[in-house]
Amino acid sequence: MNISIVGASGYSGLELIRILHNHPYVTIASIHNYSNVGMKINQLFPHLTDIYEATLEEVIPEQIMAQSDCVFFATPSGVSSLAAIPFIKAGFPVIDLSGDFRLDAESYSKWYSKTPADAVYLEKMEYGLAEFRQNVEAKWIANPGCYATSVLLPLLPIVSEQLASDTFIIDAKSGVSGAGKVPNSANHFVNAHDNLALYKINAHQHIPEIERYLGEKSPKFQFLTSLLPLTRGIMSTLYLPLTKAGARRSIELLEETYATKTFVRIQPDGQLPTIKQVVGSNFCDIGLTYNEKTGILTIVSVLDNLVKGAAGQAVQNLNLMFGMDESTGLLQSPIFP
Amino acid sequence: MNISIVGASGYSGLELIRILHNHPYVTIASIHNYSNVGMKINQLFPHLTDIYEATLEEVIPEQIMAQSDCVFFATPSGVSSLAAIPFIKAGFPVIDLSGDFRLDAESYSKWYSKTPADAVYLEKMEYGLAEFRQNVEAKWIANPGCYATSVLLPLLPIVSEQLASDTFIIDAKSGVSGAGKVPNSANHFVNAHDNLALYKINAHQHIPEIERYLGEKSPKFQFLTSLLPLTRGIMSTLYLPLTKAGARRSIELLEETYATKTFVRIQPDGQLPTIKQVVGSNFCDIGLTYNEKTGILTIVSVLDNLVKGAAGQAVQNLNLMFGMDESTGLLQSPIFP
Amino acid sequence: MNISIVGASGYSGLELIRILHNHPYVTIASIHNYSNVGMKINQLFPHLTDIYEATLEEVIPEQIMAQSDCVFFATPSGVSSLAAIPFIKAGFPVIDLSGDFRLDAESYSKWYSKTPADAVYLEKMEYGLAEFRQNVEAKWIANPGCYATSVLLPLLPIVSEQLASDTFIIDAKSGVSGAGKVPNSANHFVNAHDNLALYKINAHQHIPEIERYLGEKSPKFQFLTSLLPLTRGIMSTLYLPLTKAGARRSIELLEETYATKTFVRIQPDGQLPTIKQVVGSNFCDIGLTYNEKTGILTIVSVLDNLVKGAAGQAVQNLNLMFGMDESTGLLQSPIFP
Amino acid sequence: MNISIVGASGYSGLELIRILHNHPYVTIASIHNYSNVGMKINQLFPHLTDIYEATLEEVIPEQIMAQSDCVFFATPSGVSSLAAIPFIKAGFPVIDLSGDFRLDAESYSKWYSKTPADAVYLEKMEYGLAEFRQNVEAKWIANPGCYATSVLLPLLPIVSEQLASDTFIIDAKSGVSGAGKVPNSANHFVNAHDNLALYKINAHQHIPEIERYLGEKSPKFQFLTSLLPLTRGIMSTLYLPLTKAGARRSIELLEETYATKTFVRIQPDGQLPTIKQVVGSNFCDIGLTYNEKTGILTIVSVLDNLVKGAAGQAVQNLNLMFGMDESTGLLQSPIFP
Known about the structure:
Four copies of one chain form a homotetramer.
Chain A: E1 2-6, H1 11-20, E2 27-32, H2 41-44, E3 56-57, H3 61-67, E4 70-73, H4 80-83, H5 85-89, E5 94-96, H6 105-112, H7 119-124, E6 126-127, E7 140-142, H8 146-160, E8 168-174, H9 189-192, E9 197-199, H10 206-214, E10 221-227, E11 234-241, H11 244-258, E12 264-266, E13 284-291, E14 296-303, H12 307-321
Parallel strand pairs in A: 1-2, 1-4, 2-3, 4-5, 5-7, 6-7, 8-10, 12-13
Antiparallel strand pairs in A: 8-11, 9-10, 11-14, 13-14
Helix pairs in contact in A: 1-12, 8-10
């Protein structure tokens, strides 16, 4: 099958190219951009020489639909809310990696400070948290945010049994690639290196995304994010007040839920994962430890923000959409060391 | 005045040399070690050439007491519990940077798994959290741990007014210099770089130190520590459940408490500090932000683990002990960039 | 086909596992070690959970030969000189990633300060610089050193036409994974991070390896190595005094030589490669720029020391040995960003 | 005495503030900028809170001359060539940290692609390589470039005795702070981290600066620069073809020349310096090693590009200009670890 990528020169777009290069059934038919049109992608990114050397094309929906079976939007938020509409109207499959179709219109306006897509289209979108897909035949996928994925995978089973009732804490940290390719003060090497800095204090746009998909039973949570001096990787540390029985049940629940899931690895009890053990792979690794003295269950969830947190999960959704095994083309080992 | 350093070739010992090199009233009369005796310190650490080139000597208490006015122990835990005793017995001033004199005997045995100093000597020691020194004339100082300093400075004023009653969370992160100079798997570049890893899960020896000095009113707290891919710096993020009024009072309290303190800088409301803004200096910077929706006051405290978290605070204690202004020799700017 | 790995828990061994996990025709039948025997590899390296979970076994040649078609030695130098002999004697294929079979006995003694393998076996070994293999049917391969590969690939074509006659300079830099897994002072995070340090001054064991394989026409060269604060990657910068015509011919020669080679990418004239553009891949990227004013041709060669500089090239040699396309299982994209 | 700084919010300007904060005889009377006028410097750079909190002012020469005794220009190239003129005309002391007054007009136009200062003013400027100052009473100083300093200090004594006759090689590497504060693609964390990249191939503006100050006897040299993944520090590695006698004389010459110089430390023979041993200090450390086999003398020179390579040397020049000891306020220890 053929796919096209819009926004191929951003970090998520490049990661789609890297992953799909090894997918046995998928060909990248074309890549599209709003800048650098006419340039070969490997002129901009020499690592792709001899790997994938297509020319960046304009975004012309008819042309894309004529030659491909699905389009990925790896564009910043605010683009696909408009640009994806012609595809949806035409009944053509879309996987959107941005935040444009993850929230309802009101929330989107508030947290993104941008004009939301028309509600008709927002409703058509299925949230693409791959391990919890409702309708695997959905043709329009809002691929989840990187932080949201790292938080929802450990939390959803626990919250759906209403084990976590009190306010809890999420202390999340991400590498710099999560902040995008456009140079600014925060991603200047001198500011990010040898440093740790909190950002978007109580204002991160993944807060409403997590709330929404935790559902009506969502307890309150405090969510803060820090920028780590590394390129790839997220660690979300969750602190849940729980009774001993509640903690034990939570651990069981996660083990049960993910026993048959390829890309979520629950660590042995008390062993907490490190960021490095997932980099370059589609795994989300989760470790748990209960402290009887404080009554806190600590859950540590790590993933590669560009793979399971973006392009990898998008390919997982593509696989599901087209009836392939969800792990097709995604079973590469993390890069260690 | 003259001082001597035992354990001069470790990171805290080297930092004492760096700081005291610019102290107007202090001369380093001698440096002592349990290894590399007879070598010049600048053969081991060429950055000290022309700065300080003394030879490492054996630890002979009589000799040290004959030539100096105070001795610093910058040794690993388990050394000064024995080696400092002759000095204390002789009434000679000691500032110990290790954990050997911070806990009572029982706690020390439990958390350090080592033989504690005799209780007679433990009781003589004053805990050297400089901003909260009880008896500035004390001659024997247990210099606080780096994490403990970063946590106690923001917490003590709040806890002493009993504002924090519930269990709260401390998510603390430290650079690799905190883990010491002896090469091991955790501080191997390949394991620490591009990584984030939790360690000493519910078992960090600064937990009982924080509990002890918060005093009888100490609420329960969950304390976890991570290793950051950088050399110097600690960030401790505290999440306290508080009412709006409690949060407002806490902020006021910190501003009042530290208005006249040189080395604790309270950031403007809502502005959180980064690690880099204190590196190389004796400052502890504290920022606060209250989230009305979750009822959580987030406090972020940063310091350089080798300065305010070790050698800098030790010099601050030396200054107090000998009647100098506490900031003498310590007013250097952080290194930025 | 089946292979076995001796020394599976070192960085090169782990990289063999990572690469072979995606090889369509190769199964890792067993992994062997001189330590941690009886442990599952993913207990030591949790990134391998669900990827490859075999137990580390003792090194018993008969057993390995019974179940596999080829054995890799990913052991430190000084091991395979003895341990590989039973396999060679039995006519069983061996690919050795260490330096034990790359030099003649005299050079090996001098540069490695270890006892060389018996000359009978040294002679049987083929040097495995894949793009210049003499006898693709050779069953015993001395896989080249990482620096040597980065230097020989650009130099061999130029030296074989005797274009470089004068003494030239090689300024080579490597990431820390090249220094191995055993913790020591040089690979302590605090010493390697934020630093650049030269090591093995005029004494690097790849000097005689490069000299030997440049052949009788080898000109003199000055070779120095530095440790870079990153995990993977080598950059070798070569400065060759050449006439304008000689430089032009050198550039042509490299372009011609590698036009049909999958894993050596010659950059467009004047464009120099960066380390990041090859990390995670088996590519060696080479850029050239001639300075008419100084008469110096600068050649910059980059590769991932664990892939093209070790495990990747070893798999390339395996492919050649067993009649597969040399790129089988190796055509993954570099990881960028 | 009082000084003023123009361009106080750039890296060199901030470093002037850091260094002068500890200078016993100098007060920073005012700071000036072309942007952010009216803001307090510590609002932009919170590390300066309680250290130095002045407001950024417009650049009004009369006002600066009325209140100060000397003005530093820590502006990008292209600014002081015009902005410094009123001061020079008025006979007021100027220390310029940019490249605007280091070359003759023709060279400047060619290498900087900017309009040079009027030749009248170029001639008035003294090149401020502190250890080789010609006229210590000069009031107008062109402070040297960071790379140029690291290269000229080891080379000048050797070249002035005409020991180096052939073309030689300089392989120089710098941390990212050398590339300035304005965010761009090269200093984006994701591009600089875990990478090594050559830049300004045969086009670095310090080439003509080095040539000029080596003087008429300047041999040809090939000069290339790379960007290191660290913030502060330069290492310049020089490869000089020399006879054994020439090498021995060169080593002697450097030892003699710098025996009485505070800020140049010649390492013991064969011991090469690392970047980390000078960071935060005004030292330039130089190591040498001769390889008899290749006939190459390798010289490794390291310094902190913001201190000895910029602000520190500028203060050294200030000290000389006003008759103080050149080391006043500059004798701080490097920061290690």
